[in-house]
């Protein structure tokens, strides 16, 4: 350890990193929180932002603002790209591609996971995931633009393509997105168009398993399926999406039967996750084992074997029984901070014990499923429970009050007040519906 106060570097400003920094605030250590977005995002509500119910400001907050009262905590904007465990140094990249170094005595890796396309990275151009604010805004643009484009087309196959939405993965995020799109089509947009009937929009939900919400009790999973079917969501189980392109998807049944083609212009991907590139690099540099998804194997105290100064928390912690949920990240952040505090006080560390606080999934207005130990409920009671559970975890009092007010307003009406989206201007070669993109200009010419 260097002379003076111990230096703690936390990589990632999600639930794990934020809760770790908070607990180390005003302690005799110097903390640096490094994040590539400089804001904390409440990921479980990203789909509410994507479908127009909540604004960006209601599900996110500046890390610098959030931690301003902790004078020993410094926040930095950058993406960790290289680890030197011998020198205890991390190299980070600024948005302008230049780099800088941060030294540490303790390292907490809380970088989270990213969307996995199972080796088919080209799918990302047409099937965004749901992990960041950029993803949420991209999905909002695609969903609302699909209805707008359909309004300009005559009846026929091309219009039907724009009014067909495919969602891959029937976990909580996939179920929530599918339900919200159908609710959007049948309620919020129902009387706003002249040439199309938004309620005619098809929502296809694909999953390789045999039911939705496999992590929930079978009875809740069945209840969720009935709610989705009542909404009009078309459920397809035992299949995986084997191809995604500009105008459709190919679906391959796991039983080996014939592939099926679906014409659609909007595909949303929630089928899997994998470790971010830095996590895989860090595991290699630390000589740590990883699982198939890139989670790093850790000891009972969440430290990396052979490196007691390095902790891995949240989704990246590869240890039996640790789920990829916000509660695990929060508890892991508190635990890593507690271990560091015990080291400073020359006391023995304790092992990490995860306490399951339950799971919840929102399907549509008035319908959600909640599971907390032996307690299981759905319908309106589940919806109310879902709302207050999520709001309780929101960062910042301002965010809570604002989100409570907006959420309560949706009880009385189906209005979605944050539906604004922007087309054009980015020039990104993989950004659909962007007239300034050279790639898509070329595709339009070819068409």
TrEMBL record:
Residues 7-333 form the FAD/NAD(P)-binding domain. The keyword Iron does not apply. One of its GO terms (biological process) is aerobic electron transport chain. It comes from the Bacteria. Keywords: FAD, Flavoprotein, Oxidoreductase. Its cofactor is FAD. Gene3D superfamilies: 3.50.50.100. GO terms for molecular function: NAD(P)H dehydrogenase (quinone) activity. InterPro entries: FAD/NAD-bd_sf (IPR036188), FAD/NAD-binding_dom (IPR023753), NADH-Q_oxidoreductase (IPR051169). Belongs to the NADH dehydrogenase family. This is FAD-dependent oxidoreductase. It comes from Mycolicibacterium tusciae.
